[in-house]
From TrEMBL:
It is a multi-pass membrane protein. This is Ammonium transporter. Keywords: Ammonia transport, Cell membrane, Membrane, Transmembrane, Transmembrane helix, Transport. Residues 9-410 form the Ammonium transporter AmtB-like domain.
Length: 446
């Protein structure tokens, strides 16, 4: 088939947008951590870009999007027809009528795999060994993400049954959220959790990261149509609608519950809305996107507090936002789906559909979440028992940026308790006290 230049150009742009989301996530997560571990947090996202890209080229695309010669095994994982992506180079376009080069589709799907792995890192901020994280990212992508992508988007068992997941609510967010919960349990609580303040150190970075995520998500959702058409436009608009509604709903909950609407709240609410609309964006009417956003913003605002009641230390609320938000979006399709993507799929209950699709939309999160949690817990335990997954208490208290990377996120120079700094040391003499009258200065760390 001849290459469709319009579709190809759009998909190249969408791929770049989705890749930008991972540096955006690095800023979002980095700002939410304490200053002494901001670089480590961001490095975990960039590490995922490196490791998942290599794994995807070698075997990841093949396991996710090719067919296995054994029909029974094909329900679980793909085959080996695209190892090294060479077969995609030899194939001009996909055989699905889109007119898109096969390599463009592969690059687009690669960016989804990258950010799914990176999302998990937020649950173990401040305390994970960087080397252990690198090993985990490769193995987890191989035995969890690639098979799950095959189940839902390839020719695996959930796709065959007719589950709906337009852009990754199940494959990405529920998958990552369940893994985040398992890994948080394996590594345990941070030193001083619930006893020391662990507030975000830089809310400016958080808002910048949230803005980049919001921007990139248009490629994430609208690009998942793999075409330039009305469904892509619907997915684009629904993404904006649900995100704005969720951000507003989170702020209302904060105001009523705590008396303040915060910048962290608007950023977290926006991400919750983005997560929830992801599986549904191309399948629901705009009014339904408002409902999904409202539910996601309000429910996730309360869900992030579950860690205090249940006693698990999910550092940056991956479970409360991505797992819970993903479930809201996936299950909502059982009620609100209006545009069946495949002939065997049905509309939601509110559009005359039966209970069958609702059952599938519940089965998907349970199956993917359960598989991801169990395999991640086992993998985390193995890594912890062999090479160790958590840094020592001394390294954690000192800060991983210094102990692991020999760097600090901020070099503000020397600050003096008297208020005299290098910036005002050169002030005119008449504005300074005589040398003999200066109070003793005591150095403190920046």
């Amino acid at each position: 088939m001849k290459i469709d230049s319009g579709t190809t150009a759009w998909m190249l742009a969408a791929t770049a947008l989705v890749l930008l989301m991972t540096p955006g996530l690095a800023l979002f997560y980095g700002g939410m951590t304490r200053a002494k571990s901001v670089l480590n947090m961001m490095m975990m996202s960039f590490g995922a870009i490196i490791t998942v890209t290599i794994a995807w080229v070698l075997f990841g695309h093949s396991l996710a999007f090719t067919d296995n010669p054994s029909s029974a095994i094909n329900n679980i994982v793909g085959g080996f027809d695209a190892l090294g992506l060479q077969s995609l180079v030899d194939t001009a376009t996909k055989d699905d009528g889109t007119g898109m080069p096969s390599l463009v589709f592969s690059a687009f799907q690669l960016t989804f795999a990258i950010i799914t792995v990176a999302l998990i890192s937020g649950a173990i901020a401040d305390r994970a060994k960087f080397g252990a994280w690198i090993v985990f990212s490769v193995i987890w992508a191989t035995i969890v993400y690639f098979p799950v992508a095959h189940w839902v988007w390839g020719t695996g068992w959930l796709n065959t049954m007719g589950i709906e997941d337009f852009a990754g609510g199940t494959v990405v967010h529920i998958n990552a959220g369940a893994a985040a919960l398992a890994l948080a349990l394996v590594l345990g609580k941070r030193h001083g959790w619930r006893k020391e303040p662990m507030r975000p150190h830089n809310l400016t970075l958080v808002l910048l990261g949230a803005g980049l995520l919001w921007f990139g998500w248009f490629g994430f959702n609208a690009g998942s149509e793999l075409a330039v058409d009305g469904t892509a436009a619907l997915a684009f608009m629904n993404t904006q609608i649900a995100t704005a509604m969720a951000a507003g709903a989170w702020l209302i909950v904060e105001k009523l519950r705590d008396g303040h609407a915060t910048s962290l709240g608007v950023a977290s609410g926006a991400v919750a809305g983005l997560v929830a609309i992801t599986p549904a964006c191309g399948f629901v009417d705009p009014w339904a996107a408002l409902v999904i956003g409202l539910l996601a913003g309000a429910i996730c605002a309360y869900a992030v507090g579950l860690k205090y009641r249940l006693g698990y230390d999910d550092s940056l609320d991956v479970v409360g936002v991505h797992l819970v938000g993903g479930v809201i979006g996936a299950v909502s399709l059982g009620f609100l789906a209006a545009y069946p993507f495949l002939p065997q799929q049905s509309e939601g209950l509110f559009y005359g559909g039966g209970l069958g699709q609702l059952g599938l939309q519940v089965l998907g999160p349970v199956a993917v979440g359960g598989y991801s949690f169990v395999i991640t817990w086992i993998l985390g335990k193995i890594i912890d028992k062999t090479m160790g997954f958590r840094v020592s208490t001394e390294e954690e208290v000192t800060g991983i940026d210094v102990t692991t990377h020999a760097e600090t996120g901020y070099d503000l120079g020397t600050v003096y308790a008297s208020g005299v700094t290098s910036a005002n040391a050169a002030a005119p003499a008449q504005n300074q006290q005589p040398a003999q009258q200066k109070p003793a200065q005591k150095k403190v760390d920046a």
